[in-house]
Amino acid sequence: MSGGEEVSSDDDGGTLEKKRIAKKNDIVTVELKLEPNGFVAEPLFDNQCTVSFVLGGGNYLPGLHDLIENMSVGDDVTDVSIDAGWGERNPNLVAKVSKEEQPSSGGLDYEKIKVGTELMLQSGINCVVTEVTDDYFMIDANPPLAGASYNCQLTLLQVESFPNDNVGYVENNDVGGNTDKYQVATFALGCFWGGELAFMRERGVVGTKVGYTQGNVPNPTYKDVCSGETGHTEAIQVVYDSTVVSFERLVTLAVDRLGDSIFLLNQVGNDVGTQYRHGIYYHSDEQKDVAERVLERTVGYKTEIKPAGIFYDAEDYHQQYLLKGGQSAKKGAEEYIRCYG
Predict the structure, then answer these.
(1) Beta-bridge mates of residue 129
(2) Cα–Cα distance between 281 and 256 in angstroms, integer?
(3) CA 78 – CA 34 distance, rounded (Å)
(4) 22, 67, 204, 338 — which has fewest CB within 10 A?
(5) Catalytic residue among 127, 152, 191, 339
(6) Is 191 annotated in the active site?
């Protein structure tokens, strides 16, 4: 089978039952409860409910993905500690700074350096002063919540296959079109960070990733795409449960995100260039029809509608960028999305 393999196990009645094992790229559904061990900031994701997501595809905590991989349907865990998302404390990010070794022209006023003072290193990393003496001071560049964790309880309810057959454009050969539960959609909405977070918040969306599409150079880097010479545009690939959210709803969300930029060619907001052109890249004729119908409500739109092409994943640091930067990805969240962190 295309997803996780199945294993056999005996239930209490002696009947042999096959249970599917969760593997990367499967879509898993879990009953989840996360409780903070000590102080943890307000979670940026749903943490006490039934959730579905692409395993290993970002979204939620990395430790949660690691915990679920290789579990079987019906398995549960209790009282397992997982990292809260800020990582373990790194002793290499703590340093002793001698006052004698600092040049007098360094711009530091030692009288103003107190415990709790925030500084920025030449590398651009922020740190905080943790100790001050007459001869030296200590700085710590670890995130404030490094080492924080959640107590996790979860039950793996279901494992389903990723819709690999729907990743590219598939021409419909029957009147009914594609009736698979999980579908793939691809949108270009300018800088992909804000658009991805908007889709992550939508109920029924089980996976998102950002990347580059509609270009003519294989395996482009972010630098390549920013040159405007590869033909790619920044894009968001969305995996969604079509029984929960419709493609029309996703297109409407995309149009709302564009706002007045829908009338601009090769531009969204202040981002200008072919790499920021907006588009809807359909994976089926049905999606094409829906996209055209929604966009036709806006006279003068410049959004391109084309078949989905090869989607190249962007670099890891771009994936779920605004979630990593502290913005909520809870389903239904309505906080304003700051597009640059």
Answers:
(1) 139
(2) 17
(3) 10
(4) 338
(5) 191
(6) yes
Report the distance separating Cα 308 and Cα 295, nearest Å. 17
Give me the residue label for tokens 């809807």: 280
Residues 6+ apart with CB under 8 A from 68: 22, 28, 30, 55, 154, 156
Question: Confidence band (pLDDT; 50, 70, 90) for 1?
Answer: very low
| Confidence bin at 267 (pLDDT 50/70/90) | very high
* pLDDT per position as a tens digit, 24-53: 999 999 999 999 887 777 778 888 999 999
- Report the first-to-last Cα separation within the chain, whole angstroms: 40
Cα angle for residues 197, 204, 165 (degrees, 5° grid):
95
Q: What is the mean pLDDT of the chain?
A: 88
CA distance 163 to 119: 47
At which residue do the structure tokens 């029809």 appear?
A: 289
CA triple 160-165-168, angle to 5 deg: 130
Q: Average pLDDT of 252-259?
A: 98
